[in-house]
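Postdoc handover notes: sequence design on the structure in folder B. Input tokens:
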């Protein structure tokens, strides 16, 4: 008797109910959106997953101003960035409070807190 498996042995396929792994960018941007809404309820936040194949963004707006925040990985870890520009970093994604303050400041919402 041989322990060798047939060349085309059946393998388990994931069921239709299997949840896909979370997208790290979406998780981090969602955390930022929730923290922003908590600290500044007047700021509207929505994570937008573009259909064009670009990474998701957090769209934040306050009154007549709006900004987009992305999330990129570099050697130092995950960072929040303005838009899609990795050179225009807000700060480390672990420092959500700092990003919330920066977003509120740029939108002019600090005085409304």
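Designed sequence:
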């Amino acid at each position: 008797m041989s322990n060798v498996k047939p060349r085309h042995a059946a393998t388990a396929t994931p069921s239709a109910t299997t949840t896909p792994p979370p997208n790290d960018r979406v998780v981090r941007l969602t955390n930022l959106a929730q923290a922003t809404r908590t600290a500044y309820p007047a700021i509207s936040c929505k994570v937008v997953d573009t259909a064009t194949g670009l990474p998701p963004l957090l769209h934040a707006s306050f009154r007549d101003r709006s900004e987009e925040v992305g999330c990129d990985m570099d050697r130092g870890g995950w960072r929040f960035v303005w838009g899609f520009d990795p050179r225009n970093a807000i700060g480390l994604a672990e420092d959500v409070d700092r990003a919330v303050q920066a977003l509120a400041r740029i939108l002019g919402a600090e005085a409304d807190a």
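Context for whoever picks this up: Residues 24-39 form the longest helix (16 residues). Don't rerun without checking with the PI first.
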